[in-house]
Write a structure and sequence with these properties.
With about 375 residues, this protein is an alpha/beta fold. The chain has 15 helices and eight strands.
Length: about 375
């Protein structure tokens, strides 16, 4: 089912890729006087001891956006404990600041009860941006969209045009109840990692595209996503005391609105780099560490259980099942399927074994076709 939906997603990606940013701006509409050019994008880029070249590549894709000079504000969300933070920010601001409406650096100092990581960094950076643009410069908060991304993110040239169009085309209530998610994929440097890692990243890329394209799937944000500043304020921003970030922020908004938020897909690719180390063995180890770090998101299953009474039953059940599917079923699924003939008596021979082999061959072929088309 995911593979079939990924084919549908690929068709949508191709249609949107063929459009220019002008096509998105001209197609936008509004029923409450919010114009396309009124939307202001605040892009928070959390980073710690990140290489300048990596950040430069990410910011360069932002500078290529059609409305970068009038609608994009870049916030380098840095840590005060990073000894090179100020120098890195100064270098990048000197190179790019003239290409954006604004470019800032925030230095987050860890406080008691906070955990070092993306969530606490974003919490501080977005609060600073809100103070600067809303409280000091008088920009209306309902016109601001916050996007958070990794330091190694590659945006499509039409990404923010499509996001602006989606935002101003929604009703005022929908804007405060929606996350926007592009199709995250890991192809920018996929050819530089060992085959074992490449297969993992291909599965992640194709699988996420299939999930975004599946109308029956309960969508959740992943890595690079956007939401209205008003929604972030309503949820009291990002939680600085946790490691998981994307799902946890969604859940904070979910419970702040009594289960009223949803994730809408933007069918444009957004690239994130695979982790790479100095050798194949170390790269595989780094890839495993990344997977283990992501699995820390399983603590959100407990968070959902602890807030059972904070949302209607049907919505609570839907988000609980989605979390368990991702964190409990997906990690076990392929292990159980691979071992199935030897776990069930009589399945290692005969028609059942041939069916099992056919299933894996069909999935392997479909994955390769989808991976090739997506690349």
């Amino acid at each position: 089912l995911t593979g079939s939906c990924a084919l549908r997603g690929l068709a949508k990606l191709r249609r949107n890729d063929a459009k220019s940013p002008d096509d998105f701006s001209s197609a936008s509409s509004s029923n409450d006087l919010l114009r396309y050019e009124d939307v202001l994008h605040v892009i928070a880029i959390p980073n710690y001891k990140e290489d300048v070249a990596t950040l430069r590549r990410t910011i360069a894709t932002l500078a290529q956006q059609r409305d970068a000079s009038t609608q994009l504000v870049v916030v380098l969300a840095m840590e005060a404990r990073d000894p090179l933070a100020r120098a890195t920010a100064q270098t990048l601001r000197k190179e790019f600041s003239h290409q954006f409406r604004g470019m800032h650096c925030t230095l987050h100092t860890l406080r008691s009860g906070e955990v070092a990581g993306k969530s606490s960094n974003e919490n501080w950076a977005v609060r600073c941006a809100k103070r600067r643009y809303c409280d000091e410069l008088g920009v209306r908060s309902d016109r601001i969209v916050v996007t958070t991304c990794d330091a190694d993110t590659y945006f499509h040239a039409s990404h923010f045009a499509a996001l602006s169009a989606a935002y101003c085309s929604a009703s005022s209530k929908q804007r405060r109840r929606t996350f926007w998610q592009a199709c995250t994929q890991f192809y920018p440097n996929c050819d530089k990692v060992p085959t074992l890692c490449s297969v993992r990243y291909a599965l992640l890329s194709v699988g996420f595209l299939g999930q975004m394209s599946n109308p029956l799937h309960y969508r959740l944000p992943f890595a690079v996503y956007s939401l209205a500043l008003d929604l972030a304020v309503e949820a009291h921003y990002w939680d600085p005391s946790v490691i998981p970030e994307d799902w946890h922020m969604f859940l904070r908004c979910f419970y702040a609105t009594r289960g009223g938020v949803k994730v809408d897909p933007i069918f444009l690719p957004v690239g994130c780099e695979c982790v790479v180390d100095t050798s194949a063995t170390k790269t595989i180890g780094a890839c495993y560490d990344q997977a283990k770090r992501w699995q820390w998101g399983a603590i959100d299953v407990g968070y959902i259980a602890a807030r059972t009474r904070d949302a209607p039953v049907q919505r609570q059940l839907a988000v609980a099942l989605a979390a368990q599917e991702h964190h409990l079923l997906y990690p076990l699924m392929w292990i159980v399927l691979a071992a199935a003939p030897w776990l069930v008596e009589g399945w290692a021979t005969g028609w059942r074994f041939r069916l099992w082999v056919g299933f894996f061959v069909a999935n392997f072929v479909l994955l390769n076709v989808l991976d090739h088309c997506y690349r």
